[in-house]
Design a protein that fits this description.
By secondary structure, the protein is of the alpha/beta class. Helix content is 35%, strand content 22%. Strand 3, helix 2 and strand 4 form a beta-alpha-beta unit. The longest helix has 24 residues.
Length: 437
């Protein structure tokens, strides 16, 4: 068996899944480096002898991607290209016992709350003094800020509470310390994430504190954009809208996953809100901040979803005209409430419904984008891609929303900087334009 001479202990962290996993990997990376251990994130040069995979266990497709990644590195280990393989994150939290038997090449499996023992295995000590400080793996001008862990909601289809536990807010002073640290190191855009950001503080004080937290974050001088993701519709804290309206730094942007609109489906999904209440909430938000960009996520194919439920959803999406919309197909997940129901919508019909809803959204997005032609927007540039500088407006969150493409010919932009861009052409999801003074 061929073994390569490689540098002792060069660790590479691989992250799968959502932005919350990205933050966990960044915390792990920071802890390792603080222990003077040679570690990197998603660095694919083949001198790494230890691989840590931070997995996702949310739905079938994500689980499969995690397992394929583990099997890929298991093969490299068998070939002697790597020495140690460790797995952490949601898939490991959820299926550790089964996977330990099925994939013996993995040296150890760690759950979502086992950072200290993972560090220990990697020859590092957990450093409390690092709380609030971390390297970021995103471009240096934007970062995710995880404000809480876990979730108390009983959504029928969701396995996240099984993997992330009960809702636990991060203390406010720690969040502010982390945000100041990130801002001092060049972050201009902060994206607030949790399973439900609008529930923030309830477990600490019994009251929703997200509006207060946003106000305090807006006081941090270097920050220019503060963006709120993963808000929850039921009992939505309306004071968030006041703070958003009053603070220029807080993006007029709200990510609010609704999942469905028919009352039968909202009930079956245990979302704790009715169609009428959702429509009233959307109206209230738009009355308060007419220029707001609303992003939502819908789930199609949940057990019991009838044609009439889906038609009602299509009608609602056509009428509500969300600026940004993503669609998931239902995944039959063990130990969730819905697992006890019959998965009676075929995969073919789930996919057909998801495509139909995205077609509706594509046209809504194009119509909205065409209205932006000739107008000028503040754009934050993220990268260069081929002949274009790629950036985003305040209405676009990284990795999930639209982009602004500015030709490198006759334009000059610095990555990480803002510039004014006049839109010349609209596409279904993206905009084209030139930098103006
Ligand atoms: S709010 Fe619902 S869907 Fe979101 S993480 Fe919590 S249980 Fe899952």
């Amino acid at each position: 068996m061929k073994t390569k001479t490689i540098f002792k202990n060069k660790i590479n962290i691989i992250t799968l899944g959502c932005s919350k996993n990205v933050v966990d990997s960044e915390v792990l990376l920071s802890q390792l480096r603080a222990n003077k251990i040679n570690a990197s994130h998603e660095n694919h040069d083949n001198n790494n002898n230890i691989i840590v995979i931070n997995t996702c266990g949310f739905i079938e497709s994500a689980k499969q991607e995690s397992i394929n990644t583990i099997l890929h590195y298991s093969k490299l280990k068998k070939k002697g290209d790597i020495e140690k393989l460790y797995v952490t994150g949601c898939l490991s939290q959820r299926y550790k016992d089964e996977l330990t038997k099925e994939i013996p090449e993995v040296d150890s499996w760690f759950g979502t709350f086992e950072l200290p023992s993972l560090l220990n295995k990697l020859g590092a000590d957990y450093k409390h003094e690092l709380l609030g400080e971390r390297f970021i793996s995103t471009p240096s001008h934007f970062a995710y800020l995880k404000i809480a862990e876990g979730c108390n909601h009983p959504c029928s289809f969701c396995a996240i509470p099984l993997m992330r536990g009960k809702y636990k807010s991060k203390p406010e002073d720690l969040i502010i310390k982390e945000a100041k640290h990130l801002a001092k190191n060049g972050v201009k855009e902060l994206i607030l994430i949790a399973q439900d950001t609008t529930y923030y503080g309830t477990d600490l004080t019994g009251k929703k504190q997200i509006a207060q937290l946003l106000s305090k974050l807006a006081e941090i001088e270097q920050l220019e954009w503060i963006r709120l993701h993963y808000s929850y519709p039921s009992h939505f804290p309306l004071d968030v809208l006041n703070v958003m309206k009053e603070n220029e730094k807080i993006c007029k942007y709200l990510d609010i996953p609704l999942q469905h609109i028919s009352d039968d489906m909202l009930k079956a999904m245990r979302r704790g809100i009715s169609k009428r209440a959702i429509e009233e909430l959307i109206d209230k938000i738009r009355q308060k901040i007419p220029e707001i960009t609303l992003r939502t996520t819908m789930l199609v194919g949940h057990p019991g979803e009838k044609d009439r439920d889906f038609e009602e959803l299509v009608e609602f999406v056509e009428k509500s005209k969300f600026s940004r919309l993503g669609v998931f197909t239902y995944s039959h997940e063990e130990n969730t409430h819905a697992f006890g129901l019959k998965d009676d919508v075929s995969q073919k019909l789930k996919t057909k419904r998801a495509e139909e809803l995205m077609n509706v959204q594509q046209n809504i997005s194009l119509t909205e984008n065409i209205k932006k032609e000739g107008k000028t927007f503040k754009v934050l540039f993220d990268r260069i891609d081929g002949d274009y500088f790629i950036g985003r407006t305040e209405a676009d969150s990284p990795e999930v929303d639209n982009e602004v493409l500015v030709p490198t010919k006759n334009n000059y932009a610095r990555i990480g900087d803002f510039a004014k861009v006049k839109i010349t052409k609209a596409d279904f999801f993206d905009l084209y334009g030139n930098i103006v003074k």
